[in-house]
From TrEMBL, chains A, B, C, D:
The lineage of its organism: Bacteria, Bacillati, Actinomycetota, Actinomycetes, Micrococcales. The keyword Oxidoreductase applies. The keyword DNA-binding does not apply. Gene3D superfamilies: Dihydrodipicolinate Reductase, domain 2, NAD(P)-binding Rossmann-like Domain. Residues 4-122 form the Gfo/Idh/MocA-like oxidoreductase N-terminal domain. Its EC number is 1.1.1.361. It comes from the Bacteria. GO terms for molecular function: glucose-6-phosphate 3-dehydrogenase activity; nucleotide binding. This is Glucose-6-phosphate 3-dehydrogenase. It comes from Microbacterium hydrocarbonoxydans. It is an enzyme of class 1 (oxidoreductase). The gene is ntdC.
Length: 389, 389, 389, 389
């Protein structure tokens, strides 16, 4: 069996999650190819060496360009902050590698467009490109998509999608890189709003064609972090401006005509990682909550009227997506399982010569929706069309 | 339209609830006969007069025997403590009245047997007798029974029934009449255990034929109440013995063979009025929780495997039991609605000449199970058969 | 004890609910005045006579002007469709009556303004005016308001309020009066959107000062009802246009600066009467769901970090609003209890000479927000300020 | 850093779960020693070689005695069926290895006693022995134990513990080894009842001192499996007797006096892997449900009365047990994480020279309770004392 050799660029929180994916996928699923965790890359040599040792990568390196140039690398997995995605991904694709790029695809539409072009050129030579919206691969979300495709909700008439966290409620939480536009691109909108845009498009099979929205910075100044680190450190003197949004509330219009209400916020006190989506149609409804990620709620309007109600499907049966490789019925999965499934599907697609999803085109379409929300917000919430791809 | 004239004997908490039933039933439902709240009876003339005025009874009285002898009374509704049920009910039945008697039917099997005999004799002259297990008439419970009768759970294989409260967790809660065997007969067992025994028999259509159980007095001594009142008052000096159980845990065998686990307790910290029942069969399961009384959980093993799960049926649709007389879909009912439905069904049965349920025979059967639990508990939890009726 | 004599104008679904309020309030609570259900008024003499008999009103009548002119009427309770509220309420106030007017206060801002002026003039002579946003008086909602006033959520930073039903999902549901702009004024927005606007303003103690929104008619043509009834009847030939919205999605800005996301819809498949509100602040959060109306969720950010979480308060304890007059802890209330509490508070206010809430000014402010939503929706969702009162 | 070299004996479902534990622990946590997955042992050479390759064990072998004799093995991890635990564990301990033995410790009390003796002798030479009740290491369960130890529930007054599955509801489910007494020892009682006995003793810090119970085989005959495999295969002709229990219902008495209701069943239709425990005390209560394993319910009787209720603590904060090594707040863990934590704690204990829990003494105590339940069940549910250790 051939082996796919992986280089991971970046080693923050996402590096830990991706490492679990690379490590577990071949040990839990029957993959058509071996996976080798060849090298992890970071700017700080000591820190990245420690990460490599801890997470089980064979080597570490500090120059991603050199790594990309190596012949013994098949897949480049990018988990750096969004402002470096375009440069790395394009170089890797041009070097003939398969690329897995964490979401959001980029910080700007322009970058994402160049990435898509690079992916299209590379595809001609067999390189695959995939964006890391891993929540698609929570089994309940995949099942949600499958059930809509089977027609159980009928015509989609309304969608509600929200991603709520509360880690910024504390006004003394420091001015981290995620709160600075130059690094993060945007705030709650780009970070977690991107997830609910992608999930909406994924499960409905429709595109968000127009939006009207508002973005808000609730706490406008925060304590500075000390110099020497964009990520952490001791508080420097004084306060600085928060230059990204804390919350974004917007309404979207799907290609099929349905309205979608979106909310992305870091100020939902008590909500830790609450991504919820509900799709209402003329035959039924489906609802999902990431804080209860092993289940899916299904309402069937075609059932006996006396017995209608939301059915809580425990998505842990062997016939459910991805489950047969894991545990018996009723045994829970968690957050990182989506990262395992992402590796499974990428490896399978590479082996089959198929295109893995989410594609860069899908990643770009999320980017365009994000840009349209910002444009609308800057334009008194005027309805703003998403440019055709 | 003829009027049914009602005398209510007793005016405690249950008197308030029954008064709602008599007041609301003819105003919400289309009854085949009018209802007149003629007289309420209690020992304390002032207090009962105040209750009559407050609750809308036309008169008050202090001598129940005189009231029962009146020609202008059709129905005697007994809401006194259990130790007086037998005497009043038998006298009322012998006087040709219809009788509605609060649960438990009596404090002893012997009393209940005499009541049943009186009811049988009175039935020959058209008098109806009914026991007040009103939880049967929570719409979700009625639906639960109907669905089992339709076969949706198949063969019943296990039942779990629990009634949990926590009002005795405080060790300084006083020694009220409900904690004294001479007045209350038993504690959690007779008070709330009676409900889950009746509900189990009602929804399954089977009898509890044998039991093995344990009863427990967790706080054995409590502050005495002052003299002058068995119900409330200032604490007298010192402490007295609690002579009833605080909790009863027992296992029952249904006539169809299934095992039932029962728990009745006043020490389930944080559980205020939590009556739960779950019936498992080879085709499905049904579950109910009184703290979420407008819904019923249904699991259908015959459904598409991929979509199985517990369906939360909101029992507020027009086609559900009792609902069409109330509010539109999704509008909640509460505790007292069962008392309204009880009046509706009693009046209908009287009008139709039919036998309302729960019958005194059903009340007696609960009594026998309670006695068997106590016998088992006194006999090292030995399995104890319930004497055939 | 003096008696307050009530005339109720209208006898549809709301008439049934208000009748329960008038009937139960004096029988459950200790009111400072008696209540007499004197007369119910409707256009169809037979039908209103039947309603009077059924619901327990002493008389019926067909001319509301005559009834308002009677000396033996103290309170006029208006439960007609919104297009007649202004005329009746103003006349009743000018006749020196106290007025309880169902929500929405009127179909237009202009009507509501005239009603407020009438109420202000009448107040000089002691007449009280109240709007029927009864959900304020669900005990959990009252407690929610009280807890915010106590400061448990701190500074309000975000609010989410939604009212979701699904009775229009069926595309063959007929073109009832509620779907016709000339009768209903608006659709989901005015009918159920009004509730969440009022509740938001009530619980936060702040006003909605600006909105940006979208309204949508999802099913644009529906089967005509037969002639002879604006409310029901047999389908006439053909289809007619739905002239009100099916769903409204809008964002509001509170006077304190926080953003509110609102959704009102009749197309939320499987959601029967789901009014939800969540208030997030820098010290905590509170959340309520009308389909679980006996409880309130409270998150306390100031608690021990290890033990933080949403606490489900069962709002059935004696110390909770309105509860001590009802049942013991853990016994559920339902939909109509809010109507009872409304009567309790109105009677108390009349007795005390105090102003009952919601005032007509509050009703008008809801009307202005509704109008601003429609204006924004017609103006490409532009942010639209609510005119100062 | 020294390495601990592991041999795993057995490779069924539990082998997969333990492999995840060994693989993930050193990659997620900072362990004081390396872990090497040296060899996996099974009777079928080809199958075990495939398991080794798939799960990442360096070697495979077929003779566990030879493996135990190897010098390069530090830890023997036993995941075979219960009837072989004693022989392998005792041999491994006598060979100076540390032993991790899956639950139940053994199939009989006698075996478990010999295992404890072997562990005691081996402890003198530094060998550690641990039983695999991994549910102790679900973070919410560890937190539950910690909170009880801190006194938040006060004096424990009642406990309810249930483990409910439904995989035997189908009467045509075949007669697998788990349904045969000679292999499995017992049925639901030993398999899943063992978990709730251990968890009860673990979280309360008390022992179950006496029991009264009933065991039941609901479906008494099942289709035979074909020869050639005790685990799976084609159905042979005819049916065979089920020789273990399908359900066990029993009541226990804790050393502190509280009653515990236990239920273990494989016939709870719709319940897939539902382990629930609720501990009620005079100061509060705690409740856990394995189907919602990232949360813990806490009721604080000492809180402000108006705000009491069950708080759903999301046990995903950095200050909660085991969490800081995993993901940010609100990111869910699943079933296998307990196996990772088990390795973490075992490795730490070996490094520290401390005794890891659950000890073999604790495993034996569970075995004694199981035996007492069977004895009670055979003796008309008579209360049966658990022999002192």
């Amino acid at each position: 069996m051939t082996a796919l050799r992986v280089a991971m660029i970046g080693y923050g929180f996402m590096g830990a999650a991706h490492s679990v994916g690379w490590r577990q996928a071949p040990r839990v699923f029957d993959l058509p190819a071996d996976v080798e965790m060849t090298v992890v890359v970071g700017r700080n040599a000591d820190a990245v060496a420690e990460a490599a040792a801890h997470w089980g990568w064979a080597e570490s390196a500090t120059d991603w360009r050199e790594v990309i140039a190596r012949d013994d690398i098949d897949i480049v997995d990018i988990v750096t902050p969004g402002d470096s995605h375009a440069e790395i991904a394009i170089a890797a694709l041009e070097a003939g590698k398969h690329v897995l790029c964490e979401k959001p695809l980029a910080n700007t539409v322009e970058e994402a467009e160049r990435m898509l072009q690079a992916a299209a050129r590379a595809a001609e030579h067999g390189s695959k490109a995939m964006v890391g919206f891993t929540y698609r691969r929570v089994p309940a979300v995949t099942l949600l998509r499958d059930l809509i495709a089977e027609g159980v909700v009928g015509t989609v008439q309304q969608v509600r999608a929200a991603y709520r966290q509360d880690w910024l409620v504390d006004p003394e939480a420091p001015l981290a890189w995620r709160l600075q536009k130059e690094h993060a691109g945007s705030g709650a909108l780009g970070d977690i709003g991107a997830h609910i845009i992608d999930m909406t498009q994924f499960v409905t099979g429709q595109s968000v064609d127009a939006v009207s929205g508002t973005v808000e910075t609730i706490v406008k100044r925060r304590p500075l972090l000390g110099s020497g680190s964009g990520l952490s450190g001791t508080a420097a003197e004084g306060y600085g401006d928060v230059t990204v949004d804390d919350a974004a509330i917007f309404t979207g219009r799907l290609s099929g005509g349905a309205l979608v209400s979106f909310e992305a916020t870091r100020f939902a006190t008590g909500r830790k990682n609450s991504l919820t989506i509900e799709v209402s149609g003329d035959r039924g409804a489906l609802a999902f909550d990431l804080e209860d990620l092993n289940s899916l709620q299904f309402y069937d309007r075609t059932a006996d009227a006396e017995r209608q109600g939301f059915t809580k499907i425990l998505v842990t049966e062997a016939q459910h997506p991805y489950i047969s490789a894991w545990w018996p019925a009723g045994h829970m999965l968690g957050y990182e399982h989506g990262f395992v499934h992402q590796v499974v599907d990428l490896v399978q697609a590479i082996h089959d010569g198929a295109d893995p999803h989410p594609t860069f085109a899908e990643g770009l379409s999320v980017q365009r929706v994000l840009a349209a929300v910002e444009e609308s917000a800057a334009n008194d919430s005027a309805w703003t069309r998403i440019a055709a791809p």
